[in-house]
Amino acid sequence: MPRLSIEISSQEHQQLKAMAALKGQSIKDYVLSRALVDMPNPVSMTDTEALQALKDLLTPRLVEAEAGQVVTATADDIKREARVRQSRR
């Protein structure tokens, strides 16, 4: 299962923990509910709506690619750089 890890301050952690507790949720469930709030539910979409949502997602990315604003690093390059940065701490 994929895992997401972010660095936050102790104060931010306590705030998230408190907000999650107030909602009766785990921190994970609270963060996911907040982060994914704007995501369309593909189950309730018509084919036309799903295609439009996909177009809305991809159009800005295509514009960036056409303008040459692309990352040429591979996933392995990115992982390697992250490990180097981590080892410098």
Tell me about this structure.
The two termini are 27 Å apart. The protein is mainly alpha-helical and 89 residues long. The chain is built from 4 helices and no strands. Helix content is 63%, strand content 0%. The chain has 2 domains: 38 residues, no CATH class; 41 residues, no CATH class.
- Give the biggest beta sheet: none
> How many structural domains?
2
The secondary structure category is mainly alpha
H/E element string? HHHH
Give average pLDDT, whole number. Answer: 88
E-strand count:
0
Shape: flat
Percent range of helical residues:
55-70%
Number of separate helices: 4
Q: What distance separates the N and C termini?
A: 27 Å
| Poorly predicted sequence stretches spanning 5 or more consecutive residues | none
Q: What percent strand?
A: under 5%
- Using the CA coordinates, give the radius of gyration: 19 Å
Pfam families: ParD
InterPro entries: ParD (IPR022789), ParD_sf (IPR038296)
Protein name: Antitoxin ParD
